[in-house]
């Protein structure tokens, strides 16, 4: 009996239960197949996820030796569980995140343990009645102060995890010291096991197929610029083709690529904070100007918002611009789109290769000339005489947005040049511009 049929609803409770049990294996099998397909797709989208999962398994297996090896268990006892917990909490997908958490955890445990031992020594100066009062007051002061420090933006960005571990370790050691006289030994053993767990996590993360968050940030910046360049290069042809033909059959995927740029701020800031921990990367090194990447990202998003305005004219307007007006502004509009798009794509390539590029100045100069040409045409009174403003204004607005995109592109180029100078990008010879061939 089909459980979806009308007869099933009229059947008795035992019959329905039996039919449901018979259909259960089929449902479970379909769910298992669906789950397996999702896992397969997840691994195909980014094979590094599979490698990371294997790395976590290897690290936890290594740290489990605290329980498997008798000598280690006799030395550390039940405190070996802190090494296991440390690996689980510290080992992240990227090297920067793992280093940040590992160093934060080790330093926080060391400083909190030392302070807790100091609190225990101060408390011993009082009698048995006064000790819990002193410990309680000091725990309140330290925990409250460190918690308030977590609200500082500079500390929260890089040391929030360390401050949280500091509070946890300090409270555990200082409170337990009231009933346990071996507080110093407890602090030492926890510190050792946490340091060992952190080092195992860091070594596995760096030595086995490392994922550098700095490279990920750099590639994302380049991809965002390339998306903007693709949009601009295709927009001019797409817009004026719609003006002439009323439709377009070409692939329009380039019109939507820029949308991911609009919401990239939080992700970029997180990656930049984590990338600062990757001091040993061969391409970046110490004091790499990650804040300059954020500046480029901010200007890229500002440009993406202008592209959002351009895209709205493709979606919400039926374009019926007079032929004379359209032909007059078509060439400078397409030139602005083409040259600005090429400039952004050249910047994307330069960021990926970490090299300077002066050829981008050629495209910027051409886009500026096209913008000036478009301005002169838009203020030409002959184009507006006897014209239907309702038909002309949408296309004129597109021209004004394109004019506004040129200085926006210039700002991105200037931010890139500042980044290239601070990061000491490789110098490249200038390309031969087309004007030199004449």
TrEMBL record:
Alphabetical GO biological process terms: malate transport; monoatomic ion transmembrane transport
Keyword Ion transport tagged = yes
The portions of this protein that span the membrane are 50-69, 81-100, 132-152, 159-179, 191-213
Q: How does it sit in the membrane?
A: Multi-pass membrane protein
Say yes or no: keyword Transmembrane helix present: yes
**What subcellular locations does the record give?**
Membrane
Q: What is its main location?
A: membrane
The organism's place on the tree of life at top rank: Eukaryota
One Gene Ontology term, aspect cellular component: membrane
Q: Which family does it belong to?
A: Belongs to the aromatic acid exporter (TC 2.A.85) family.
Q: What is this protein called?
A: Aluminum-activated malate transporter
